[in-house]
Design goal:
It is built from 10 helices and 15 strands. The protein is α/β, with parallel strands linked by helices. Strands 3, 4, 5, 6, 7, 14 and 15 form a 7-stranded mixed sheet that branches. The chain has a 6-stranded parallel sheet with strand order 10-9-8-11-12-13, with helices on both faces. The two termini are about 20 Å apart. GO terms for molecular function: oxidoreductase activity; zinc ion binding.
């Protein structure tokens, strides 16, 4: 099968001998010819890129698979084969799935617990961007921070995949959303997704904390941060007493340090949210979360905004779009039949 394989660690944008990624046209099928009783084989239609994929290829992510490996953690596709004990899906079903590696290929084979059947009205291509970004935001905001109607959520890095998901999930439960981004086009897109207030850092010279304070004089209840760095430090200066701080990632490359006395004085709760680890440690949480998200998607309460679509062969351009932060929403790699959806 065709697959994008990481043979050495390095910059995903590099070419030639220095390129960590190579497109293989004869990679072995996952699980070989036979599958386990509870496994599901999926013909991949689309796979979504996440910033974690770029970090993993560079060796900078917390989850470090042995070389060589196929990157990618979320897909959508069509079930082609099921194990003898699989009951949740059948051959021909449209599904999305969490892979924890292996997504950037023509085929994946997964335990049925990682596979979710899509309702007939849900677009199979955009559904590739649902599991990780929306799953992360759903677990973080609703299970960990317990965001409530009427509270104010501050979403940093709001124009990315997890950010656009966080904006919509916050609005779905009735919260007020302050979204932070860079660029007028991103700001307009976030308003269309429902953000109540948008801070465009490229258009403002005032410190971020001053801009937030102007919009939320009494402070914010929840901080959702996939960025890290200076933005995180600024956000901590404008939180309410008892606020919930969600640490999602460090897209800036700068991991901030927090003085413990700040947490003590303001009674803050810090949550580290590594969504993928739930797959090993508490799978039912993920399954319940994804079931609710698919229901919301079918009802039109949320949408998966797709910013860019690329054929698998054009993976380098897809990574470039992701790493240069040109996207508003998800970046997808289209595989097999998915190529007709460019």
């Amino acid at each position: 099968m065709k697959a994008l394989v990481c043979h050495q660690l390095g910059d995903p944008l590099k070419e030639g001998d220095q390129a960590p990624l190579k497109l293989s046209k004869e990679h072995p099928r996952p699980s070989g010819a036979a599958i386990k009783p509870r496994d599901v084989r999926i013909q991949v239609i689309a796979a979504a890129l996440n910033f974690a994929d770029a970090l993993q290829v560079q060796g900078l992510y917390q989850d470090k698979p042995p070389l060589p490996f196929i990157p990618g953690s979320e897909v959508s596709g069509i079930v082609t084969e099921v194990g003898a004990k699989v009951k949740s899906v059948k051959q021909g079903d449209h599904v999305c799935a969490v892979t924890r590696g292996g997504a950037f290929a023509e085929e994946v084979c997964l335990n049925e617990g990682a596979v979710l059947k899509l309702p007939s009205g849900v677009d199979i291509v955009s559904a590739a961007g649902l599991p990780v970004a929306f799953g992360t935001s759903h677990v973080a905001l609703l299970r960990r921070a317990k965001l409530q109607k009427g509270q104010t959520a501050l979403i940093l890095g709001a124009a990315g995949g997890v950010g656009t998901a966080a904006v919509q999930i916050s609005k779905a439960v009735g919260a007020r959303v302050i979204a932070v981004c860079r660029g007028a086009a991103k700001a307009e897109a976030l308003k269309r997704l429902g953000a109540d207030e948008v801070i465009d850092q490229s258009a403002e010279s005032a410190p971020l904390r001053a801009q937030i304070k102007k919009l939320a004089p009494k402070g914010v209840d929840v901080v959702y941060d996939p960025v890290g760095g200076k933005s995180f430090e600024e956000a901590l200066k404008v939180v309410k007493w008892g606020a919930q701080i969600l640490i999602i990632g460090f897209a800036s490359g700068d991991i901030p340090k927090v003085a413990a006395n700040i947490a003590l004085v303001k009674n803050l709760t810090f949550h580290g949210v590594f969504w993928g680890s739930y797959m090993q440690n508490n799978p039912p949480v993920l399954q319940r979360s994804l079931l609710e998200l698919v229901t919301w998607l079918d009802q039109g309460r949320i949408t998966v905004p797709v910013s860019h679509r690329y054929q698998l062969d054009n993976y380098r351009e897809a990574f470039r779009t992701l790493m240069e932060r040109s996207a508003v929403g998800k970046v997808l790699l289209l595989v097999g039949q998915g190529r007709s959806h460019l």
